[in-house]
Amino acid sequence: MSADIVFIGLGNMGLPMAQNLVKAGYAVSGHDLVKASVDKLVESGGVTEADAMAAVTKAKVVITMLPASKHVESIYLGDKGILANIRPGTLLIDCSTIAPESARKVAAAALEKGYTMLDAPVSGGTGGATAGTLTFMVGGTDDGFALARPYLEKMGKAIYHAGASGSGQTVKVCNNMLLGILMIGTSEAIRLGIANGMDPKVLSEVMSKSSGRNWTLEVYNPCPGVMENAPASKGYAGGFGVDLMLKDLGLAVENALATGSSVPMGALARNLYDIHSKSGSGGLDFSSVFNMLAKAK
Ligand code: NAD
Question: pTM score > 0.90 for this model?
């Protein structure tokens, strides 16, 4: 069956993003290594095919939402990859968070074959993906951006053209380095308040209206029970994994080395998430870093 859009990578983010494209009326063929995720998309009105590469031959648009650079490079490049299978005129949009140089490499390979490819990483978490309110930061040509915009608008509410190929990923790396640092800082502040007998809800409410306010405090509070819908109140399940944050901070530190930039807080944050991951928390939401700061009982 032919679909307008082939969506590859139906994880915590990709599934709700693909579901929003279905809701907007597009025929979406969804693909993932995990069958249960594909089944969920089909239950929501999407379709699938046994072979993702057979599906991409008929697509107008291919969207990928994969974990890291190596997954993106391996699915686009090579004899059996997307670039070897699509028809002329197919638009390629990668929404994964990957290294800017990796995004440029894949987009250059696409351009060499005459295809338009954009890096379009997102911010807003699984809540934003479900609500269709993600922020997209897009790297690529003006024409490519104009072609992608109608699709991105069905999944997000703020769509920015950051600049040339790879620019979307550069903005994303900067943003997530800041996010990783803020989550640790917010966790420290709440732990300090609790150690002084404060109710974390009251503390968070007041800090949200004070100069310490930030997204992790206001939308994604790391302390269980403060926000009903935050991963912290659901056993740190779902959300944005510690290992994905660790990957993003690794991208930031690598990029800092390559560009001669100083990122002392980013490097410290990377090391803290690394220790947290190695203690067995890699699959939990990144706000579980709050647990690392618990007082010994
Ligand atoms: P996830 O691990 O939940 O999902 C990734 C999915 O890709 C998995 O379901 C996996 O099975 C699938 N996959 C991997 N290789 C595949 C292949 N070859 N073919 C088909 N499917 C394949 O990750 P996520 O949380 O959805 O994040 C996806 C990307 O978005 C990451 O780059 C992440 O850094 C970024 N991101 C995540 C969040 C968040 O809050 N979770 C927010 C912004 C950006």
Answer: yes
